Structures are given as C-alpha cells and as structure tokens.
Amino acid sequence: MKNFHLLEQFIPDAAVPRVNNLLQRHPVNIRITGRRASKYGDFRALPDEHFHAITINHDLNEYSFLITFLHELAHLLTWQSHRNKANPHGKEWKMHFKVLMHPFIEEQIFPDDVKHALLHYMADPAASSCSSPSLIKSLRNHDKRKKGILLDELAFGSTFKMVDNKNYLFRKGEKARKRYKCFDLNSRRDYWVSGLAEVIPVQETLGL
Description:
By secondary structure, this protein is an alpha+beta fold. The chain contains six helices and nine strands.
C-alpha cells in the first residue's frame, strides 16, 4: 500500500509494525471513507489483482479501526485462496480472521475490556462486530467523541431519534430478544430497533 503513514494515524501505535508487515506481504489499496451507518468497512475484489480495495470509515476509534482492517484483510486472503468458492463469512474467512487477529491479542494491543470481549467474539466471529453486544459496548468505552447512546441504555418510554436518521421520532417500548418495539410518533407505526443502535434522547418520557 502506498502512503502507509496515512494509515498509521488510525490504529494503535503498538500495532503499526505488524500492520505494516501485513500490507507488505498482502498489498491492497486502502481508502478512508466518511461515516457509513450500514457498515464499518468493506473489501472489493477487482479484475486487476494489483487494485483490490479495502475501505474503512474514518470515524472509528483506533481499536475498532484495527479490528475492521483485519476483518477486511481476511476477506482479501479468502479471495486469494478460494475466489468465489467460499462463503463471504464462512469457515475459510473465519480461519483467516482468527490467524490475523491472534498476534494482536497476544501482544496486548487491545485494552483489557476490549480484549476480553474480543476473545469471546473470536471464538466464532460473525459478519459484523456489531453482532456482539459486549464487544461493541467495550469498544464504545474508547470513543473520544460519542455521537449518542445505545438504545439499550435508554429508559423505557423515552423518546429518541436515530444518530444516522433523524427523520423519525421514536418512543422506546418493550424488548424482544435483541430488539425493542419502538413507536414512531410521526408515522404512527411500530418498528423493531436493535438495542445496539446509537440514538439521541429527545426527552426522558412522553406521556402518550
């Protein structure tokens, strides 16, 4: 990757030598993007082998950024080994992700709270770290600027707007598994919203 020094500012200092080594062994174009509500990063396999690309959101804290980078690099290694014959987040990708992540965990790159949650998550990594409540919550502890709070942290009956979509005004309702039944006061419709969604409280309660 050209201009590796541009990537250094987004990852923990202790991770820089190992990440640099990975990129020398597995060249890929990395582009830093704006915030995307639907994903932290992605990998794109392109016809020209020299231009495979990874994109990562710029607003992630250094630990979230590193995890996302390794997640997407595992996609590159899976593509190089199996092309389209492997599922995007199947056993081949999980194997590559675990191998890439192991030395970063062993070298104490992550704070204890993140490391503990990450070890549990890496036992069977999923398509997104957002699927692990303990990991996403521990990573949020290290955000320098939080945009809101998690819906899980908001009191029952509170009203809120979504960080990434302020067109709705919700009232928090009952929980079913990992989602809350939330009533949109504008459309008068119910929606199921993840407890890990980032929200902005509007007022504590609304007596409707």
